[in-house]
Amino acid sequence: MLRPGRFDRRVIVEKPDLKGRVNILKVHAKDVKLDKTVNFDEIALATSGAVGADLANMMNEAAIMAVKEGRKAVSQKDLFEAVEIVLVGKEKKDRILSKEERRIVSYHEVGHALIAAIQKDAEPVQKITIVPRTMGALGYVMQVPEEEKYLMSKKELEARLVTAFGGRAAEELVFDTITTGAANDIEQATDIARAMVTQYGMSETFGLMGLAKTQDQYLSARTVLNCSEDTAAQIDGVVMEMLKKAYDEAKRILSENREVMDEIAEYLIQKETITGKEFMRIYRRAKGIPEPEEENTAPDESEASEASAENRGEAASVPEKAEEKKPEKSSFEEVLREANIVIPAMPGAKKDADEEPADEENQDEANPGEAEKNKETAETDSNGNPNDFREV
Questions:
Q1: Residue 189, Cα to own-chain centre: how many angstroms?
Q2: Can you tell me the distance from the alpha carbon of 243 to that of 85, in angstroms, rounded to the nearest whole number?
Q3: Could you give the residue numbers annotated as active site?
Q4: Would the CA dihedral through 43, 46, 49, 53 be positive or negative?
Q5: 3-class SS at 212?
Q6: How many C-beta atoms lie closer than 10 Å to residue 248's C-beta?
Q7: Among 169, 77, 176, 190, which Cα is nearest to 116's?
Q8: How far apart are CA 294 and CA 127, in angstroms?
Q9: Lowest mean pLDDT across 71-75, 80-84, 193-197, 304-308
Q10: pLDDT for 332-341, tens place per residue?
Q11: Is residue 267 within 8 Å of 218, Cβ to Cβ?
């Protein structure tokens, strides 16, 4: 196929972008009943990096959840839960944690969320939970970007490093010890820091020098160092220094907000799962920050329904008032009468409409011959055939 003269064109199918994920979700939702709350744009934002098979699985899981709960249509809540099932597995409620472990997991996750909320370059928090999942996670923080990005700045990557170490920093501050729960966080932070040094040229030591290459981009995408052993050792030292700096920053942020962390952690232990809005409401209340104008000025559902009803009543009453004020049209005869114009009656003209017509019986008695003739005409048509109806 790749010899000269043959078909040597390569078709590369990459992971879908935001618009592509929205279109894929619409394709898989054709045979699924959806309610009015479904918003594919929000689901597509929360599934960055997902391929078509993942999105199809999410839609299928959402439909199954709706059926289990006895509903005939899939809601936005079902879709978000399906996203979590595909990414981190189903809830494993039969796994019972001790009180101490629940406190550790709660502080660990709140540490991630609190640092994400305080930093300007971090993604907003969508959900916090300490319910174990089938893929091994004892809890997690779900962050959803406000928009899809194709480039990341150095500040955003550094914010990710600090957020990743928020859980370990919270454990050390509160319990004076560390656990194995930060294994995945350490792995992700190390990968980010190493890529910043070897691929993105974001270290002062090596500057703009490319020290790694990506092999098999569309298969394993494995990164291989392209430097000497001495340089590789120096890279390890720079990466270690970046990680230590991020960890110290995480500890500083949580130490300054210890009271807020304690309040949110206790609330999470009671509820097990809280939304991003609940988390930010507690955070603002603890810090004395006023709520945004949208939340303060937003009326309740009952008030909104009453206001809409009043608006509908006012809108309905407007035509009635308009009809009352609308002047009645004067007839032609009234206009002539006001102008004192008299039109002489023509011979054979009809009487005024105001005069009551004579009874049919009196007319028949006055003209018996004409009545008999009309009767015969009504009973037969022009060909002499009988009629079954009378013309009015």
A1: 29
A2: 31
A3: 109
A4: negative
A5: strand
A6: 13
A7: 169
A8: 20
A9: 304-308
A10: 566 556 656 6
A11: no
